[in-house]
Fold:
Amino acid sequence: MADAGERLKVLVVDDHDLFRSGVKAELPDDMLVVGEASDTEAAVELILERRPDVVLLDVHLPGGGGAQVVAQVKRRAPEVVFLALSASDAPQDVVSVVRAGARGYVTKSIHPQELADIIRRVASGDVVFSPRLAGFVLDAFAGDVEVGDPELDSLTDREREVLRHIARGYTYKEVAEALYISVKTVETHVSSVLRKLQLSNRSELTRWAVERRLI
Amino acid sequence: MNPAPPQDLEATLLRIAGGARLFGLGWFVLLAAVAWLQHGDAIVRPAWLVVPALAAATWALISLVAVRRRRESAVAPSLLAVDTLIAAAALLAPSQAGIGDVLFYGGLPLIVVGIGAIRGSGAAWSMASALVLAVLVRIGVSSVADVVGSISQILTYVGGAFIFTWVARILRSSETARLLYAEAAARAEERAEISRHLHDSVLQTLALIQRAAADPSQVTSLARRQERDLREYLYGTPRSPGSGFADGLRAMAADVEESYRVAVDVVTVGDAPTSHRIDELLAAAREATVNAAKHAEVDHVSVYGEVLGDVVTVYVRDRGKGFDPAQIGSGRRGIEDSILRRLEAVGGSAELRTGPEEGTEWRMQVNV
Structure:
């Protein structure tokens, strides 16, 4: 976590040079790009060496993929925070990298200003769900659980309500106002959903993960 | 890399093998009958001939049925073995009937070698060897040794095996080459089609973007349209209005994006088949989205559609300037009324939340 006054260390992992230089140019002054990598192996090495606060991680990478980078780094440096970026909206891509341990997911078409905000939020411990990821999660957790852990494999009504608002395009603050709860409570619900997303064995999730050869 | 087996040629060769077998057997049975009748006044009728002739006739029927019912390929090893046995028997049998017959019956063994060649050179050569062996046995046991005739027969079978094998190989390799060529041509055509598409759409869009560089909203709209187009092309998810609720909502959003130069983000959860009610809901959602695009002064509208049990709900939301519902112009009133009436007519409901500087959000709902 970055102290106030200190610049946030960001590492960009993407195989598109154009995108990396674009992100670098757009990040505000309080963020410092401490490294760039363009494939899985180089990314893991560089992240372990430079120890950034936040890694911006492309889901599709030569030599494995974003999910593998997260999985390999998490084993040796669990404190590194990942924010997944993707040009694709395919649920299997997004869900696989989040299940591997990313703290959030946004599409590459995101506005630079918004990206900077989100980087700050994940760096400070928040979980960032895009409307689309919220939609995927609602889809994946739809219906009753056949078998397994009911605590992990289903969402509470409140969590569902929070996700539906996020899917509708609400910010956490707007969700809090709409549901008459605090922003902190919204964050707690989203963290809990993230935990379920990562640990649940619901068939939709494992299917998506299998499609990306994660399991 | 092995090319796919040339199916057409193989089917033809199998038909030829089956036809040749029937022809060879029939020919042999006919000749055997003629020979038997011609020797009718002789002291010794060629009784040996009867056995292979009957065997040949029976085999003709059995093999025909087996191949017709697709129990066996026309060149299955078991069939080829019986073919060889009958041909060898034919070669051995007429040894008592004189030289002429020996040359006469040579036709069946030659055809049999040809059938073997269709299976492959191994089969052709082993069958030819079996027949040569039969001829040698005949020379050994026969009192009337016709060495010249026998040697010419041996040469015929060996030569036949060589020629048939060679012809089959030529046919197959030229067919394979033809198929490889056709495959390469198809690949080249596909590549040409991809570059044509990239040129027509992507390069054109990039050119337009360069010309429109000063107008960010136009650049965004061009880029989004191209993105959608490319996704459809690459992942083959055509937007076909009417194929379902989720597809319909996405198609609606894409349409509004193109017409009004705003970004419309769509998230859907669940899906439902299309119906009159759903069409009305989509039409209402479209009006709400267009309304936001036209009046809210935003560059971005969020659309969320969900199917929960029997209830289908669409939210259309913008963070624009909003308005005071109590004091609005007749134009907006009209749109609101039309959304409400449209949904109420199919038993649904609609609700608008807005306020000055608060953006707007429509909630629209029907039952499946």
Notes: The beta strands of chain A are 8-13, 31-37, 54-58, 81-86, 104-107. Residues 183-199 of chain A form the longest helix (17 residues). DSSP finds eleven helices and five strands in chain A. Chain A touches chain B at residues 109, 131-132, 134-135, 138-139, 142, 164, 167-170 (CB under 8 Å).
